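INSTRUCTION: Work out how this chain folds

Fields: amino acid sequence; protein backbone structure tokens

Chain under study, with its fold:
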Amino acid sequence: MTTLVELAAEKESADVTDWAARLGWVVGLLLFIALVYWLMREGWKWRGTLQGDLPELPAAPDDPGPAKLELTGRYHGSTTAGQWLDRIVAHGLGTRSRVELTLTDAGLDVVRPGAADFFVPAAQLREARLDKGIAGKVLAEGGLLIVTWEHGGKLIDSGFRSDQAAEQAQWVEAINSMINTTSTTEGTAR
């Protein structure tokens, strides 16, 4: 009987969790995550500073005329034209949001709840096309409506996705037709 008592006395219990070490690791990880987010935020602000030469975005005219087309969907951002990863963040153009687009004879009215609205005059529109990606957002081929426009001497691509993807082809046709009409009218006026 003494052997069982001796055996029981010799056994040691398992190591208890070292809460101080575990808490130190958790705090260190949280500080690292906070540092990464802070650096990302500073990078975003720095990019906006670099793009500070971009003039203020135009506002919609008081009477833009009757709507040719209307669309609701998502605004996925703007980039330097032809460089789908070079996001433009100045003046809120880098902020993704819901969008309501209205195409009139005066131009393209971009209304973004929760973000800065802007207007692209018809004379500044350069091209419309369907594409698959812009500024970190990649979809199926033809999933994005990309509108190229000029602002402050710089060509900008803005990406939109309609709630009804089938209507995006209509937008490409209407905008390109409007651009061709505008450029033909300007050419004959000279």
